[in-house]
Amino acid sequence: MLRRKTNGREDEDRVKPDRKKTSEDSSVPDVTVSQRSCWAVVSFWTKVLLFIIFTPAFLNYASLQREGQALSPTGAQLIDIGLGQNIHLFCKGYGRPVVVLDAPAGMSSDIWYHVQESLSLSTKVCTYDRVGLGFSRRTLQNETTGTEKVWGISTTGRMVDDLHRLVKAADIATPFILIGSELGTLNGRFYSHIHDTQVSDLVLIDPIPEDVFEEEKWKQFW
């Protein structure tokens, strides 16, 4: 009897670990399923977050492209002046001498709308957007070929150089009348000084003195 009891106990002891193993094995799939569901939730919300971040940017870019096409005047051109730079040019009317309009600081060519409409009844009038303004995109520094070594970006020298390239690339008839306002007067004076044979007349509206960036002059002008 004692032997049978001990054998029964041994059998029970043997069965218990097997039961533990089966219970442990059954818990493994549950852990795997829970991990998969957790990753699925994380992946879903990551996609939602990326959608929220990037979709408005793409929609805004597309709307700006459509708006630019709608606002660009009929007959306007993007002229390649070299150095990877395109400048927006709009000429209206016929006749000579041609009138070229240079806008004030920080303003695009549409500031001249009424002036161009009026003058184009008598002769050809051209407006353009300086680099980084209006429809003229500013190029990255690594897209240029080194003119910034001579003229820094957004300096009068660089603006005059861009205008000179534009006149040549667009085949604007010279000599022309150059009209500048505020910052455009500095560009006009510098352009007529360097390329004097290309300018027949120079018109300055609200001219800025050449020494305006000296401290006292700047405070007075500002």
Gist?
It is built from 5 helices and 6 strands. The protein has 222 residues and is of the alpha/beta class. The radius of gyration is 37 Å and the shape is elongated.
Please supply descriptive tags for the structure shown above:
5 helices, 6 strands, alpha/beta, 222 residues
Your description of this structure?
With 222 residues, the protein is α/β, with parallel strands linked by helices. Helices cover 50% and strands 16% of the residues. The protein is built from five helices and six strands, in the order H-E-E-E-H-E-H-E-H-E-H. It has a six-stranded mixed β-sheet with strand order 1-2-4-3-5-6, sandwiched between helices. Strand 1 (77-82) and strand 2 form a beta hairpin. The longest helix has 70 residues, at 2-71. It is elongated. 22% of the residues are buried. The mean pLDDT is 77.
How would you summarize the topology of this molecule?
Blueprint: H1 2-71, E1 77-82, E2 85-92, E3 99-102, H2 113-119, E4 125-128, H3 156-169, E5 176-181, H4 183-194, E6 199-205, H5 215-221
Parallel strand pairs: 3-4, 3-5, 5-6
Antiparallel strand pairs: 1-2, 2-4
Helix pairs in contact: 3-4
